[in-house]
């Protein structure tokens, strides 16, 4: 009996992904554990291993196909002793077309309608169409419902005309292609006219960058968005629209920390960066001020019992935040080694989902680029992110006399729903005390 190979869920939050590469072709034999494909998720490209043994009978989703929903049938595997004839008339071929997969129990397949009704085809409902006959991914359906968009008037860009997330995004921005004129006769039927209205472009929407460049003859090139870049953009927009930010900034003297770092590095056991010491201090400060290690939900405050620090790393595809788990309990050498490994694999797109999802607090350090100070955007559902600037020599007053010190500006971005100003200030005071007296981190 043929076996359906499904689009896997590579993380708890994954709903769709890009089928980046096939490592097997039709006719190839596979055994359990063989790498058969690579799937690009929001943040990484991951290998997919075969679970069953057999021969690849049919590949249904081509390389490079985007927005493939989880549990979509991507290929059909022939078991031992079966040949291509098993693909005909069996259960698997009915799913050969991506759009034929049942996407929700309540929505019947379009092909089943003629057998259940003597009439030629299901006619539009009172609103002018029948959503159950529109092929769309589950994510696209949810987005359309939330945005009040009529799926029946959209032309899908996915395989076999399937409506996918990108089509809903285009509809929201006013750039979605309309369904071919074949639907026009139904629009003339009584009650059908209102169905054409929901996708109208908002009156306030202006031209986008590409339209302006075309209009004014400005030369440009296009670089297609990766899944990572789309996810970063979506989450940043979500953060600024839904999280009430406020910001607290302190100046911290670094000379004692720089001296300790040099002494430790001179021993030759490990090469610590300033960022390694900052991660340790940030984690210990959360242990001292646990009220800052929390997240808001509509039902309750989530107070984390573990300190997992997400550290922003720039990659060619966008920003990613690998996590140092239990950072308050780890030594500086361990933190340094883990950070180097995580950052290298982040840039190669080789992180596992559990290595960049689920932190409780974030750090973004742009000091190495000479940035003096900045305010970072909170990484939901976390409540705080610490923006670290460059250490620069500045005049300071000590014991009534002018002196020179290396000073670093740090800004804490805070979700005011979960963390009040006094708690944020208490956290920064604890962090500054650890940085300015770094030997206390060794206790």
Automatic annotation (TrEMBL):
GO molecular function: dihydrolipoyllysine-residue acetyltransferase activity
Region (Disordered) location: 88-132, 174-208
Claim: Cell wall biogenesis/degradation is one of the keywords in the record: no
Amino acid composition bias (Low complexity), ranges on this chain: 111-126, 174-207
Cofactor binding summary note: Binds 1 lipoyl cofactor covalently.
Catalytic reaction(s) noted: N(6)-[(R)-dihydrolipoyl]-L-lysyl-[protein] + acetyl-CoA = N(6)-[(R)-S(8)-acetyldihydrolipoyl]-L-lysyl-[protein] + CoA
Listed GO biological process terms: pyruvate decarboxylation to acetyl-CoA
Domain Peripheral subunit-binding (PSBD): residue ranges: 135-172
Name recorded for this polypeptide: Acetyltransferase component of pyruvate dehydrogenase complex
Source organism: Inquilinus limosus
């Amino acid at each position: 009996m043929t076996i359906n190979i499904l689009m896997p869920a590579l993380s708890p939050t994954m709903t769709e992904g890009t089928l980046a590469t096939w490592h097997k072709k039709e006719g190839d034999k596979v055994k359990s554990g063989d790498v058969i494909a690579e799937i690009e998720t929001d943040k990484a490209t991951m290998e997919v291993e075969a679970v069953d043994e057999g021969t690849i009978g049919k590949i249904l989703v081509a390389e490079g196909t985007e927005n493939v929903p989880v549990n979509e049938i991507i290929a059909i595997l022939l078991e031992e002793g079966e040949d291509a004839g098993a693909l005909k008339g069996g259960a698997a071929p009915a799913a050969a077309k991506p759009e034929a997969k049942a996407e929700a129990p309540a929505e019947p397949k379009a092909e089943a309608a003629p057998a259940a009704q003597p009439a030629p085809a299901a006619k539009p409902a009172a609103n002018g169409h029948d959503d159950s006959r529109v092929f769309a991914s589950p994510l696209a359906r949810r987005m359309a419902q939330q945005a009040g968009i009529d799926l029946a008037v959209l032309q899908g860009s996915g395989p076999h005309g399937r409506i996918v997330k990108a089509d809903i995004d285009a509809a929201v921005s006013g750039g979605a292609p309309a369904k071919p004129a074949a639907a026009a006769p139904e629009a003339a039927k009584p009650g059908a006219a209102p169905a054409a209205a929901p996708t109208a472009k908002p009156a306030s929407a202006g031209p986008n960058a590409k339209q302006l460049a075309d209009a004014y003859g400005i030369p440009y090139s296009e670089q297609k968005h990766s899944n990572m870049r789309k996810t970063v953009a979506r989450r940043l927009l979500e953060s600024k629209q839904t999280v009430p930010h406020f910001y607290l900034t302190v100046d911290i003297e670094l000379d004692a920390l720089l001296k300790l770092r040099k002494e430790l590095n001179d021993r030759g056991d490990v090469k610590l960066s300033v960022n390694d010491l900052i991660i340790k201090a940030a984690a210990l400060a959360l242990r001292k001020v646990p009220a800052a290690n929390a997240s808001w939900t509509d039902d309750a405050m989530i107070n984390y019992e573990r300190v997992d620090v997400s550290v922003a790393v720039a990659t060619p595809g966008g920003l990613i935040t690998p996590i140092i788990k239990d950072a308050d309990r780890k030594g500086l050498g361990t933190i340094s080694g883990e950070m180097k490994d995580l950052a290298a694999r982040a840039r190669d797109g080789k992180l596992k989902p559990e290595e960049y999802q689920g932190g409780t607090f974030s750090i973004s350090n742009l000091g190495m680029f000479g940035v003096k100070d900045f305010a970072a955007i909170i990484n939901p559902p976390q409540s705080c992110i610490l923006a670290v600037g460059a250490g620069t020599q500045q005049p300071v007053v000590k014991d009534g006399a002018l002196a020179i010190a290396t000073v670093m500006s740090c800004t804490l971005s805070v979700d005011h729903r979960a963390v009040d100003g006094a708690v944020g200030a208490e956290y920064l005071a604890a962090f500054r005390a650890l940085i300015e007296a770094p030997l206390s981190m060794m206790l």
